[in-house]
Amino acid sequence: MFGRTLRFALVLVATLLLLSCNRKEGGAKKIAVIPKGTTHEFWKAVHAGAVKASREIGVEVVWKGPLAEDDLKGQIDVVQSFVAQGVSGIVLAPLNDKALEKPVEGAAKANIPVVIFDSDLAGNAHKSFVATDNLAAGRLAGEKLAALLGQKGKIAVLRYQEGSASTQKREEGFLEAVRKMPDIKVVSDNQYGGATTESAFEKSESLLAAQNAGSGGVDGVFCPNESTTFGMLLALRKAGLAGKIKFVGFDASEKLVGALRDGHVDALIVQDPFKIGYEAVRTMAEVLAGKPVQPRIDTGAVVVDKANLDKPETKAIVAPDLAPWLGK
Fold this sequence. Notes:
Order of helices and strands: HEHEHEHEEHEHEHEHEHEHEEHH
Helix content: 40-55%
Strand content: 15-25%
Distance between the termini: 60 Å
Oligomer: single chain
């Protein structure tokens, strides 16, 4: 009786292993896509691009990330959960360039390849990095704000949050550009807005007050992402300074584009989040197919202002139609 039970158990285990192997070999590849957050318009466009790629290539995309962009533990838990599930590959926008290094190394050890997108990661365990050249995009912002100011004036920067590689590069590029101009003075570059519009609004109010912005202490402002840009916009409006202080932000949303039309924002440096999502999933599919991929894929950035806002090529980036990919 014991012998028959043991043989049955061995046959059952062997059958389950065979079925598991067949699913991995014959079923659709499952790619986990993990953004920094899920609430900003930027991530919705990334999601749509990922879905488009998945339909074209014939892979399954599972979209899951932390709700807020300051939930580092939540994002690490999501990565580790997908590794435990044994997904085919992981596409990740790391909240912190160092904290996610070990979880990604863990995925690689489990033979789950990782493609990083949007924001860089320390180490070399990932296969490719798909993103805007953020240093170059920051330079674009600096050159645009300097031009708006006639190459002279007092500038403040509201940073995003420490550990975010993408925004750090934008801030570096911006400061590199404006510091080349002798008649421009950076009056503040050490304040961080944080991951939400609410925290960015509070920091913006404090920054503007500390620099006596209402009395001419600030001529221009730069913010490196959607939440800091919107938080600063709200603070400028509350202080009656919107449209009076030159303002260059980063990323686009319906409200920010509206502010651009109203003259409350002078320019936005806009990535192509739809393209970022699309290229990240397409790159992972090539990795899974055993094809060589580039270690760095630049998805570009453009300066958007009133002059080009209504051009078709700008509209396609600023306000892509997401309905075919995400539904209503």
